[in-house]
Specification:
296 residues, alpha/beta, Cytidine Deaminase, domain 2, six-stranded mixed sheet, four-stranded mixed sheet, 9 helices, 27% helix
C-alpha cells in the first residue's frame, strides 16, 4: 500500500495515560478539510472530507444526488486553476462542467447540500423523492454465498492504509460477485466514502453496478442505502446497525440490506433471496428480537 499523502493525515504530539503511566507520544490524525464544488461561478455545495480522490467524490455526489443522471453529463471535473483563488485554497475547490440535462440546484438546495462529513449530505429526506427521480429497483440475478460474505470485512480492513495509522476513518468498498475487491475509499464521512466509490464506478463506465456488493465500515443509514440504490448496487452490508428508515427504503426498493456483519454472523433486514440458502434457513418462529439478539 502506498503511504497516505500529507493531506490525508496530520501529525501531532499527545499525552497518553496508560494504567497510571503518563508519557508524551507521537500520533496521527485523520485529515479533514472543506471541499467546495463549483460550476462556473456558482457554488453547488460544500462538504467536509478527507482529501484524496476528490474528483471521484464529486462525481459520485453529483450522481447520487440527482444533479446528473449519466456519465456523459459530467463534461469535466478538476481542481480549480483560477488564479484569483489563493494557491492553498485551490486544492479544496473542484470545478465541474455539466452537460445538457444536468439539474443545477437552486441556491437554497445548494445550501442544503453543504454539510459536515459526519452527518452526510442529507438533501434527500423521503422515499417519495427517490421515486420522482425514477430510481429503479435492482435486479434479482445476483446470488451471494454467505461464507464469502463473511470474508469481506477482513478484506476491507486489510485495505485501509489511513485507518491503520489514525483509527479515525470510515471506509466503503465495492466487491464483485466472487468477493473480489474492486475499489476501497476512506473518508471521515461514511457518506463521502460511498460517493467516492460510486464516483469511481461512474468515471469507469460501470454504472449500474448490478452484480456487486457494497460494504461500509459504519452503520447503514438512509443516505447510504439511497446512494447505493441510485448506483444500482443490489447488496449493501455494514458491520454495524441500519436505521429504521434505511430498512424501510431497502424493503420498498428491493435492496438486500445486511447489518452486524462480523465474524461468521450477520443479520438480513431485507432481500434475503440474494443470499444463497437464506430462504431455506429454518425459522425460529414468530416473535420480537430482544435486546442484544441481533447485536450479539
Amino acid at each position: 500500500m502506498p503511504p497516505p499523502s500529507l493531506r490525508n493525515v496530520d501529525f501531532t504530539q499527545v499525552i497518553e495515560w496508560n494504567n497510571g503511566v503518563v508519557r508524551r507520544v507521537d500520533d496521527y490524525l485523520a485529515g479533514e478539510e472543506p471541499l467546495e464544488i463549483r460550476s462556473g461561478n456558482r457554488s453547488l455545495g460544500l462538504t467536509m472530507r478527507t482529501p484524496g480522490n476528490d474528483p471521484e467524490l464529486v462525481a459520485g455526489f453529483l450522481f447520487t444526488e440527482g444533479i446528473i443522471s449519466r456519465r456523459e453529463q459530467l463534461l469535466s471535473v478538476e481542481v480549480t486553476e483560477d488564479a484569483r483563488v489563493r494557491k492553498a485554497a485551490r486544492a479544496n475547490r473542484i470545478q465541474v462542467r455539466l452537460g445538457r440535462g444536468a439539474k443545477i440546484p437552486t441556491l437554497a438546495r445548494a445550501r442544503k447540500f453543504s454539510a459536515g462529513s459526519a452527518c452526510g449530505v442529507c438533501g434527500k429526506a423521503s422515499i417519495d423523492d427517490l421515486r420522482r427521480r425514477g430510481v429503479r429497483r435492482p435486479g434479482l440475478a445476483l446470488r451471494f454465498d454467505p461464507e464469502l460474505l463473511c470474508q469481506l470485512p477482513e478484506k476491507l480492513h486489510a485495505a485501509q492504509p489511513i485507518f491503520g495509522r489514525t483509527g479515525g476513518l470510515h471506509a466503503a468498498a465495492l466487491f464483485d460477485s466472487n468477493g473480489g475487491l474492486l475499489v476501497l475509499r476512506e473518508d471521515i464521512g461514511r457518506h463521502n466514502a460511498v460517493d467516492k466509490i460510486v464516483g469511481w464506478a461512474l468515471l469507469q463506465g460501470l454504472i449500474p453496478l448490478e452484480n456487486h456488493v457494497c460494504l461500509v465500515s459504519g452503520r447503514g443509514g438512509f443516505e447510504i442505502v439511497q446512494k447505493v440504490l441510485v448506483a444500482g448496487v443490489p447488496v449493501l452490508a455494514s458491520v454495524s446497525a441500519p436505521s429504521s428508515l434505511a430498512v424501510q427504503l431497502a424493503r420498498e426498493m428491493g435492496i438486500t440490506l445486511i447489518g452486524f456483519l462480523r465474524g461468521q454472523r450477520f443479520v438480513i433486514y431485507s432481500g434475503e433471496q440474494r443470499i444463497a440458502s437464506a430462504i431455506a434457513a429454518p425459522s425460529s418462529g414468530p416473535g420480537t428480537a430482544g435486546p442484544g439478539t441481533a447485536r450479539a
